[in-house]
Write a structure and sequence with these properties.
It is a single chain. This protein is mostly helical and 107 residues long. It has a domain of 68 residues. It is built from 4 helices and no strands.
Length: 107
């Protein structure tokens, strides 16, 4: 039996059961959930990298990243408007990524 030990979407146990399989699951504590969300964000970000230039795959994987970010925002009770303000300020102060600049070194 494969072992996963990772955060899954809410309907996955139901989908597994529909296939005639049995999932061993448990509900995480708030502290465990915070750690699992961070790990899930890394997992989903890596899947964006693996998608390469495949537009359909990128759309799917970026959607997954945004879903995890939404869960993090909700879990920590963060204010989306404040996040947008900080994002806008950082863009004004530090710029974005439109110039495609790679920092190779600093002397």
């Amino acid at each position: 039996m494969p072992s996963y030990n990772k955060l899954i979407r809410d309907r996955i146990p139901e989908i597994i059961a529909e296939k005639g399989e049995k999932a061993k699951i448990r509900t995480l504590t708030d502290e465990e959930f915070a750690v699992a969300l961070a790990a899930k964000l890394v997992e989903e970000a890596n899947e964006v990298v693996k998608a390469g230039g495949d537009s359909a795959e990128l759309v799917k994987e970026i959607g997954d990243v945004l879903e995890v970010i939404d869960a993090i925002v909700t879990h920590f009770g963060l204010d989306r408007a404040e996040i947008e303000r900080v994002k806008t300020n950082r863009l004004a102060e530090r710029g974005g990524f439109s110039k495609k600049i790679l920092l190779e070194s600093v002397e």
